[in-house]
Amino acid sequence: MLFKEYDVVGPEDAVLAVAGEDVILPCSLKPNTSVVDMRVEWFRPGLKDSLVHLYEDHEDRNTDQIQSYRGRTELIHQELQRGNASLKLSSVRASDEGYYKCFIQSKSWYDDVTVDVRVEAVGRPPLITVDGFDHSERLHLQCESEGWYPEPYLEWLNSEGVSLTSETTETQKNTDRFTVKHTITVHHSVGKILCRVRLKHHMLETQIVTSSTCWHIC
């Protein structure tokens, strides 16, 4: 029977990472004790080639590391003596999203914890263009924004913040980023119209102000 000396602990909630930035995947021993003499392995469960980072015999051993993680992972060695085996992941990509296991093993004991990583990529500010007018003095507007992950939510709003129904919607995925494009028709004298693109934690918006004689984009 394995005697459980310590607990490997991680975050209770998912870790939010922003594409292109660095992120820390928390993992540590409780009670705090040095892991310098232990094996620390980070891997992606369920993948055939799953190794993200391996520390063993006092050094990093990443010969079998997943190719896409080469040069992007780091254990802070001075933190290992404090029981902190958190992994620094640099230049986050959309493909980094998913579950990670932090596995720590000594000669007499082992334990692991799962860390859920969610990635968001913030795209370009939405671009509003005027597609044209019709005989009823109505504006045909198009809003487009690219470079998002995961697929964002685009909405049109009037000056009171009330959501307007898009007439046509289009979503495209290029590699791992999404482009969204929505069109709407409004009366020329409607006032301020807002196009907003958002994810759970990020939002960008652009507005167009119309009148009976002019319009301009802000």
From TrEMBL:
Gene3D superfamilies: Immunoglobulins. SMART domains: IG, IGv. The keyword Protein biosynthesis does not apply. Its main location: membrane. The keyword Lipoprotein does not apply. It is found in: Membrane. This is Butyrophilin-like protein 3. It comes from Labeo rohita.
